[in-house]
Specification:
By secondary structure, the protein is of the alpha+beta class. It has 12 helices and 18 strands. Strands 7, 8, 9, 10, 11 and 12 form a 6-stranded antiparallel sheet that branches. Strands 1-6-2-3 form a 4-stranded antiparallel sheet, with helices on one face. Helix 9 packs across helix 10. The longest helix has 14 residues. It is elongated and about 80 Å long. About 1% of the residues have low confidence.
Amino acid sequence: MDLYEYQARELFKDHGIAVPDAAVVDHPREARHAAELLGGRVVVKAQVKTGGRGKAGGVKLAADPAAAEITARQILGMDIKGHTVRRVMLAQPVDIQDEFYVSYVLDREAGTFLAIASAEGGVEIEEVAANRPEAVTRIPVDPAEGVTEAKAAEIAAAAGLPPEAAAVLHRLWRVLVREDALLVEVNPLVRTADGVILALDGKVTVDDNARFRQARWGSDAAQPADDPGADPLEAAARAKGLNYVKLDGEVGIIGNGAGLVMSTLDVVAGRGARPADFLDIGGGASARTMADGLDVILSDPDVRAVLVNVFGGITACDAVAEGIVRALESVRLTKPLVVRLDGNNAARGRAILDARAHPLVEQATTMDGAAARAAELATT
């Protein structure tokens, strides 16, 4: 889950990283009042989960509270890369002397974390990384060792950052570990004219799998509603504890295990149809999980046919079949449903579906055959 900038800044403050004073509002009149409290002159920044806000006109300087209200009115409602601005942050401006870039990111292939730092931070950091990669330092971090004060000093020195930036690197690692983050980034980290190190902007991605132990992010209520670009089906699936991603196709897909679901997506695409989602009910999914999954997929108006592809292991096929039957009791099925069951208790699962004899439910014995039938039903 990506956090908004203002949420990332809250984490930074909690862990001892200095940030300018700021306030978040969702109405122009509130911006005027916030600017008055912050001293009058403020930077008004769009709060959306995407980059390029400055170049899109989502970051502007306001000279006084009246200008802050006008600027907030201009920015609120803007579309920035498909994200509608619903709130803005007003921050005290800073007299910047130097800009730097620092981050930690999970390196899945190497099985470690990567510290990335540069003495040339700011809005052009991507161009710096592409055109002059030598200006960006990348240092692996052993998760077991972490970033000690000595390691932080090593990273700062290698990147050409001032020695006082090492304290920020040390605390930023603490943010990553204690908040169960996959990415923490400060761009820019600045040194002011009077030598103070401040985090002017922040990006944090927290691990959804750790939300159960993060009280701050553990519920959807704690995460403000995103812009209209955020899919309501994904929100509904998340509330049910489902591993679901909305796609652009017409064949709804449910499987048990990420590898099987990915293979099913490929087979459906190979049969001339487009997958409408990725939904993995997991290795030990219950009948309730199956019913919840069908409920979400059948709520998608783009879906014209549904394919359930299950290989029974920990998940017994009869439990999946019972989940389908239960869903049919509470959800009016208006789209054809193709089911392929194989493995543990597959024969019993097929018998349960046969006994239910729903006119829109078909069964197939192979994944290829099920995909072909689902694609045919969705495209004719």
